[in-house]
TrEMBL record:
Transmembrane segments: 147-176
Region feature (Disordered): 198-220
One cellular component term from this protein's GO annotations in UniProt: mitochondrial inner membrane
Natural source organism: Chenopodium quinoa (Quinoa)
GO biological process per UniProt: potassium ion transport; proton transmembrane transport
Keywords: Membrane, Transmembrane, Transmembrane helix
Keyword Chaperone: no
Biased composition range(s): Basic and acidic residues: 199-215
GN (gene name): LOC110688012
Protein name, UniProt field: Uncharacterized protein
Length: 270
């Protein structure tokens, strides 16, 4: 059973931050990378010898493409300062900075996640927190599905630039956006499943869960655990009510709850 820890708090007005703790992200990504093929030969072996359904093979193909893109990106990152590859890396950083933080959050909810533990300030109502999670999941499912088809449709058009001697940046950017929207769409569907009412899953408060150990939680099939945090409430109260949370406060929240500051700070720009 893989449980993801989510941290939710208001930044300014109706602008809320949704982020996943990095500790559960690292453990989940490590196990996933170990089963992803790294060469075309290994990929072909996995696809040809597998009796898995088409959707599972599609996931394997997407993971393979993702691994190749990450490897190429790391190569650009290590390029010498001032080189052509380094300039491409700078353009890539600028493009990535325009990606909405909600998309990064939804991408972090992988198919392996079977439950979420949501930490939020004590001043917030648990039903409101759950409703906001449902809203971001439902809207993300609609938006990223639409943009997935749009990005995929533009891939053949951008491939005509392959004849040029320069790297085909439009093609690789659209390829990344197609992959990113696919992951965000899948994450939206998964999150919606976890936070919605169902016969095999229940919403529980942390105080109620203290009467059960982790093995009992797995046995009862809890998919959503809501955990009000006094520590998070104190950090949020340090922010200005009119101007929203300051950069320093948000960084302190990231340190306390092991969040990625580069992703969390983007919520200030919304």
């Amino acid at each position: 059973m893989m449980r993801a820890r989510l941290v939710v708090f208001p930044v300014k007005g109706r602008n809320w931050c949704f982020s996943r703790s990095m500790d559960s992200l690292i453990s989940g990504d490590t196990s996933k990378l170990s089963s992803t093929p790294t060469t075309i030969r290994d990929l072909w072996k996995s696809l040809s010898s597998s009796s898995q359904p088409v959707t599972a093979n599609a996931e394997l193909l997407v993971d393979f493409v993702s691994h190749k893109m990450n490897t190429a990106w790391m190569g650009l990152e290590k390029a010498p300062q001032g080189s052509f590859k380094n300039k491409i890396y700078g353009v890539g950083l600028w493009l990535l900075s325009r990606v909405k933080p909600s998309e990064l959050f939804l991408k972090s909810i992988s198919k392996e996640v079977t439950g979420v533990e949501v930490t939020y300030p004590t001043s917030l109502n648990a039903r409101l927190v759950r409703r906001r999670l449902r809203h971001i999941a439902m809207s993300g499912s609609i938006i990223h599905k639409k943009y997935l088809y749009g990005s995929a449709a533009l891939l053949p058009v951008s491939s005509v630039f392959m004849v040029l001697p320069l790297p085909n940046i439009p093609f690789f950017w659209l390829l990344y956006r197609t992959y990113s929207h696919w992951r965000a769409w899948q994450g939206s569907e998964k999150l919606l499943q976890l936070v919605s009412d169902g016969s095999d899953g229940r919403c529980s408060n942390k105080k109620e869960n203290e009467r059960h150990n982790s093995s009992n939680d797995e046995a009862t099939g809890l998919r959503l655990v809501l955990e009000p945090s006094k520590q998070l409430e104190e950090l949020v109260c340090r922010g200005n009510a009119d101007d929203g949370l300051s950069r320093c406060v948000m960084i302190d929240i990231c340190k306390t709850f092991e969040l990625n500051p580069q992703e969390v700070l983007r919520y200030q720009e919304l």
